[in-house]
Amino acid sequence: MRAVPQPCAIVIFGATGDLTHRKLIPALYNIAADGEMPPAVAVVGLARRPKTDDEYRAEMEEATRKFSRQPVRDEIWDGFARSLFYQCSDFGDEAGYRALAGRLDKLDEESGTRGNRLFYFAASPDQFETIVENLNKAGLNKARQGSWARVIIEKPFGRDLRSARELNRVVRSRFSEDQTYRIDHFLGKETAQNILVLRFANAIFEPLWNTRYIDQIQITAAETLGVENRGGYYETAGALRDMVQNHLLQLLCLVGMDPPTDLRADSIRDEKLKVVRSLRRFKAEEVRTHVVRGQYGAGTINGKPVPAYRDEERVDPNSQTETYVALRMWLDNWRWADVPIYMRVGKRLPKSSTEISVHFKRAPQVLFNRETETIEQNVLAIRIQPDEGVSLRMQAKVPGTSFRIESVKMDFHYGTSFGKASPEAYERLLLDAMAGDPTLFARGDEVEEAWAFIDPIEEAWSVKENAPKLCTYPAGSWGPEEADELMARDGRSWRRL
Amino acid sequence: MPATAENSIVGLPVEVIQIDRELKKLWASGEGVMTRASLINFAVYSEAADSLGKNTAIISQLTENHACRAIVIAADPAARENGIEAWISAHCHVTRAGRKQVCSEQVSFSVRGEHCALLPNIVFAHLDSDLPLYLWWQEEFRPPLDPQLWAWVDRVIYDSQTWRNFDEQMKLVETAQEEARQRIVLSDLNWIRLVHLRLALARFFDHPITHRHLKEFRRVEIVHAPGFHSTALLLVGWLAGQLHWDIAGDDSPTLWISADNRSREIEVRLREEKGEPISACKVTTDSAEFRIEHKPGADLLDVHFGRVQGRKMQQLLPAGKNTVVELLREELMRGGPHRVYLRAVSKVRELM
User: Fold this and answer.
1) A218-250, pLDDT tens digit by residue?
2) What is the pLDDT of residue B107?
3) A363 contacts chain B (CB < 8 A)
4) Contact A160, A129 (CB under 8 A)
5) What is chain A's alpha carbon radius of gyration, rounded to the nearest angstrom?
6) Any chain A CB within 8 A of the CB of B100?
7) d(CA A340, CA A347)
8) How many CB atoms lie within 10 A of CB B206?
């Protein structure tokens, strides 16, 4: 049974920012359009620039028309817009929070939001402490009897283990762990959720899901985009912090975890935590062998020339920031002993695709031990985005008198198999937060363990002398040659996407 | 319903950046009526002026038997202006059961000027994942061949009949194959052109009774059409490779072969005559004659076997068709690593 989203007031800190325009408001509109919105929800955008409710509504309507997954219907938008409000305040202005508290109380009376508060931090992490403290001073972190207050935090959850712990300390000082929802939008995607269903609701996979039958796992997050207008942020993050620490390790957890004892949020998150804990940590000298970092040079994407990373806006011309990472990892537990896990993430690659592929060991060549035949591995590919779905590569005999074997693919596409479009990840996650279900949100200890894996790599890269090489690759290619060599050393190659 | 491509209609023009989205829409519009199918990525590269339409027509026929994701590229590297245009289309065919349409998708590109250097990116960006990549290269190979592209190719298809310099072209292909660090299968349509003739010839000697004749070859006469000299040479290369012959001398149009550790000499005569690519092949041994004739336009080979003073036999065997669609169909159906071809090529290069 799915928990039911409850009436509440959603307060977005960073109401005029990119995330709000592109994701949050369109997601809330789509929830309303799909009839999933609880009967009384008010959305209050809080930001520094002065504007009226009507001006804010007009701005958000324009954004929603541009970014919504479904066309905006005027009659639905009109109803949704009536529950959209704007509160002008600086994040550090205590009076602004008192005004916010008053406005929320008023909305409780007028709209029936019942004292439930969902605070969405769509602001820069360096503002979090200020926001948390001021929410506390205004008494907004504690809900009235019978109501709740929750906080949603956007990544990055720190930039290393130390800062992640500090961030957790700040948030926990005013909100308990069960009030805190760390959003990783990858977990809200249908296919990410489907990993658990695929694994644990199909009897054919789980018996094979171990070192005895699986040869390797590959996780890829490729995108054609460069850093766009996020050069300033990206310079402080890089691909490892921006993607691997959160999204890709979360996907690895879903693939690698043991069956939870039940479907309670903490049962699932406990199993995920065990996966991150069993990741073999790299020593400084091992980073060079198991990790490749790269940065894109000038090249071509979709027929258009694109500049090198170092020529992007707000990027240091001598930048050492990686836009590509490839890793070879191991999970030191019984299930995954000796199964290498290859992960790669990169910007300005030829196509955008995020997927997990599970490569099974080859069938014995007893029957087909002929010079002319090479038996390929069975590969189960779980496509996270775009074109969400699952495919299974297997071997088939080519019709005819000769005995020829070829790979064929059984393919399941969400888009065509189910008549209904998949909701955007943010829709699902917002609904879960309204319902008080933290299953698809990262827990503080998971985040810290992930940083404990990432930190030694970052440290090895940051040494002044003899640091592992930053390789370059032309935009539009599949990454640096060194990443191919990482696989070739094991007699393997990256899956062709 | 998707916009199906028929004959020379290339399809729906789309922005390069929107190809995936438009393909999704294309399939969404035909949901329930058709099944998208694909067994290979089939990339076609041509620099001929009118190639897009012609290749689309070929793909349309080919997809009746071989469902694929086709990536058809028409390049004009000499164009003064740079440019790239794209189209998408679907080739739909009713299944044998007659109920559902099975469709293959085609993405077409017209690339001009310096944008022709984008070939690897175009191919990489539009592959159907997990499926092998077959590249049909309709031009002569020019150095340097992009190792990045070649590393992804599973099978390169070409027609050596159109090459001006077989040896030079073959060296380029082999270099690319080595640089790619993976097994690329070389598929020569000129070799496929010989498949039925080779089968017919080999069949003569399959039976243990006729097997001994292989050691008694004295003369081979091959009649080829103008422009198919290389096809005839491949046939000689095949015989030489399989029977461990050595090329002893070239006294064009006669070749001299030494066999059995130079203890036996075989005369090979090539003759040009209008007709099918290889219209006749006659093998004379000490005691018998094997003859295959392919009359113009016939879909059967006329096969004769006779002892010098003894029984004569005749048989009709499939001849196949020397059209590009049929050759491709045959190649895609047969597959395999073509090791026999490589041995034949090696012998042909000795002849060059």
Assistant:
1) 999 999 999 888 888 899 889 999 999 999 999
2) 93
3) no
4) no
5) 24
6) no
7) 23
8) 9
Q: Write the CA distances from B181 to A375, B131, B146, B175, B227, integer angstroms.
A: 19, 19, 13, 10, 34
Chains A, B: CB contacts under 8 A, how many? Answer: 92
Q: Map out the domains of chain B as residue ranges.
A: 5-139, 192-330+343-351
Distances (CA, A) of A339 to A210, A446, B159: 8, 22, 43
In tens, the pLDDT along A447-482 reads: 999 999 999 999 999 998 888 999 999 999 999 999
Nearest in space to A219 (alpha carbons), one of A414, A382, A407: A382
Active site residue A413: no
CA dist list (Å): B172 to B168, B179, B181, B342: 6, 11, 15, 14
Q: How far apart are CA A430 and CA A233, in angstroms?
A: 25
This complex has an ipTM of 0.70
* Catalytic hit among A247, A290, A359, A413: A247
Distance (Å, whole) CA A474 – CA A52: 47
Whether the CB of B300 is below 8 Å from some CB of chain A: the reply is: no
Of all residues in chain B, the one with the smallest CA distance to A222 is: B125
pTM, whole model, 2 decimals? 0.83
Mutate to test the interface with A, among B21, B42, B121, B146 (most CBs of A within 10 A): B121
Tell me, what amino acid is at B70?
Answer: A
Mean pLDDT of A29-52: 91
Backbone angles phi, psi at B297, to 5 degrees: 80, -5
Q: How far apart are CA A287 and CA A468, in angstroms?
A: 8
CB contact (8 A) between residue B121 and residue A496: no
Which CATH number, 3.40.50, 3.10.450, 3.40.1350, 3.30.360, labels domain B192-330+343-351?
3.30.360
Where are the strands (E) in B167-275, listed by range? Answer: 185-188, 217-224, 246-251, 254-259, 264-272
A145: exposed, middle or buried (Cβ count in 10 Å: 0-12, 13-18, 19+): exposed
- Dihedral sign computed on CA atoms, order B340, B346, B350, B351: positive
Q: How confident is the model over B156-172, as a mean pLDDT?
A: 89
pLDDT at B234 over 90: yes
Residue B127 has pLDDT above 50, yes or no: yes
E strand or H helix that includes residue B196:
helix B195-204
